[in-house]
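QA checklist item 7 of 12: single-chain prediction sanity check.
[x] sequence parsed
[x] length recorded as 337
[x] structure emitted
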Amino acid sequence: MEPTFNYLRLHEENALSPQEKIDYVNRLRQYVRHRPLTNTTAGAITVAPKLKKLVNRLDAFVTRLLAGGKLEYVVDGIEHIPQAGGVLFASTHQGMLDSLCWIPGNPRHCVILQASDVSKLLTVAQLCTGLVLVNKDSSDRENRRNAKLDMIHILMNGHGVWYFPEGTWNLSPNKLHLPMSIGFLEVAQKAGVPVIPVAVEFTYDTTREKETITRLHIRYGAPIPVDIHDDLPQKLSEYEEAISTMRWELMAEKGEFPRREVTEQDYVNYLKGNYRNLVFGGKNLQLERSRIRGADGDFYRFYHINDVPFDENGALLETEEVLRLTDILRKNRIFPR
């Protein structure tokens, strides 16, 4: 085993010849196989797999509790999950429940990649299955590299890893997914394991002051193999197409919900629920905005976080973005003043 390893960044790795890349990945795997875990909670791949049945019951109870009580729980596509060997599950991410609701419906034990700044209460609920903790601070490259090496080690030892490529909650009413990190494909490629796309869709009851989740649908897609010489941006497009199709299908299966039937108060209740969940999950609104990959314009930020202001009577107010777009339309005489 090499005492140290020169871990290349993707642009450096892409500069290697095909044979040099094979040699590099083989050296990396040899190094990782014997490298002690640094960012992973104790017992994640030794004790946690033995507690799977107990954790299933615990997380099923917590999921129903956080959803508001009665919950219809639907899972399909389990036939796509390999019975043995390492596998990386890459899931959509719409809210707090995503971090544990899938556990009872997955036959495999998985270690979850989790931001180290998440709510301690939520972390405790996940500890029984194991966590790889990562600091999302863009300046802490060593921590993020160590988290990747931990995941490669876990996958090479035949375990599952649960990964949220979007990196933050997709609260948008009109985007099937947010811009994604390519890191999950890099991890799968280095470990030599397939990626399973996962779509999680919720059905909400927003007619109450505190909205509840009445239905939870989890769908596993067909495995996406990631070969050592695959072009990762192309693989990312393949994953994005799969996950978009799955989400669209799940949304269609829920049935149409005519917009005219949604009152302003219904929508305000939905917004309040988002804010409560962000606070409960230890999320900082401004910090989450800054983490949206590719969100360099007001339009994306506005539609991502859904932070439409409302008054004390529950009436929606015009946002700066709405006023800005309206001003553009008027200046271009798209509609009269």
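[x] summary fact logged: The chain has a mean pLDDT of 81.
[ ] second reviewer sign-off
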